[in-house]
Design goal:
The protein has 5 helices and 20 strands. By secondary structure, the chain is α+β, with helices and mostly antiparallel strands. Helix 2 crosses helix 3. The longest helix is centred in the first third of the chain and has 25 residues.
């Protein structure tokens, strides 16, 4: 029995080492960037400054430590399965504690993810955040930009770092206002967020027209929405880009059959990534394939849509009933490559 256990742990250690080695070796040439709306990733403690009472053990959702730990471990499993991305953008996280739990108390702990986060003005206390591998991305600057609208909302996270000791990468993580109060009523909020993001991008491109920029997030709008087309001025045709344009990497997946969330039986592509024009040049130091945007939709993230047919994301809760899924959104990712 002891010999069997020794053999088991020996094989396990080889597999873990091989995975880490493969990732570090790959990082010389390719880096994966992931975004995930993790839907209400709350802890079980009461924060008196935010509206989190529903996510307490005695609250509406009966949010217990066991349920929290399952969600935490499931999110970690997805990040690991996607391939230990160099950069992970997240939204709907409550605080730094839940991020430390994710990076230090799960299987992710062996990879050494660093955290970029601060509490947002959002009334519910849900924030955007960034996880990154410091051995692959050397962070040199960061900021959180306020979206000036008539209600408190999430900030836009900004990070600047040297990717793979090759070139500078600028990163933005977004979570724009939802349509829960009505699409027309909330559209100005998303347009304002789009213009705020575009202003920050323009300030980078004005200083360096060939800057490498990635913007990602849950934009709560579609690729053809006014906020994306007019506010952000994102382009959907890669070969017609000017030097100061940004390209919507999700454009080619926009159809009734593709999306990251589902509303009344219809898939919606609200989780997107954008890149600066220079990154679509395959001779650039950091190259982003315009066909490379991927929605991760393994079976354990999905369930049957009994109302409208087909499948849908399997969320954690349906009211107080614990479904046991991870999120009502699917994660997305893109690979950045270099020939150097």
């Amino acid at each position: 029995m002891k010999n069997v256990l020794r053999l088991f742990f020996f094989i396990l250690s080889i597999l873990i080492f091989s995975k880490i080695f493969a990732q570090s070796n790959q990082s010389k040439y390719s880096w994966r960037i992931m975004f995930y709306n993790v839907e209400n990733y709350f802890d079980t403690e009461d924060d008196y400054e935010t509206e989190d009472d529903e996510f307490l053990p005695v609250g509406f959702y009966r949010w217990t430590p066991a349920k929290f730990e399952k969600k935490r471990d499931d999110i970690a499993r997805i990040i690991d399965t996607i391939g230990i991305p160099t950069i992970v953008g997240l939204c709907e996280v409550e605080n730094r504690f839940v991020l430390e739990q994710l990076t230090q108390q799960t299987n992710l702990s062996k990879y050494g993810y660093a955290i970029l986060h601060r509490d947002s003005p959002d009334p519910r206390g849900i924030d955007v955040a960034l996880l990154y591998l410091p051995q692959q991305l050397r962070l040199i600057d960061s900021a959180f930009f306020k979206v000036n609208i008539t209600k408190r909302t999430r900030e836009i996270l900004y990070a600047k770092g040297i990717l793979g000791n090759i070139d500078t990468l600028h990163i933005f993580v977004n979570h724009w206002s939802s349509k829960i109060e009505g699409e027309e009523e909330t559209e100005p909020y998303r347009i304002k967020a789009a213009r705020t993001l575009r202003q920050k991008i323009d300030s980078i491109l004005q200083y360096n027209p060939t800057a490498n920029i990635i913007a990602m997030g849950d934009f709560n709008d579609l690729p053809d929405s006014k906020s994306i087309q007019e506010g952000l001025r994102a382009k959907s045709t890669a070969h017609l880009l000017q030097h100061n344009d940004i390209y919507n990497l999700a454009t080619l997946l926009e159809s009734g059959e593709e999306g990251t969330s589902k509303y009344k039986g219809k898939w919606q592509l609200v989780d997107m990534m954008f890149c600066s024009a220079t990154m679509l040049n395959n001779n650039s130091k950091l190259y982003c394939n315009p066909l490379g945007f991927t929605i991760f939709k393994d079976g354990y993230l999905l369930e049957a849509d009994k109302t409208y047919g087909g499948i849908k994301p399997k969320r954690t809760l349906a009211g107080p009933r614990h479904i046991g899924g991870v999120s009502d959104h699917l994660p997305v990712y893109i690979d950045i490559k270099s020939s150097l």
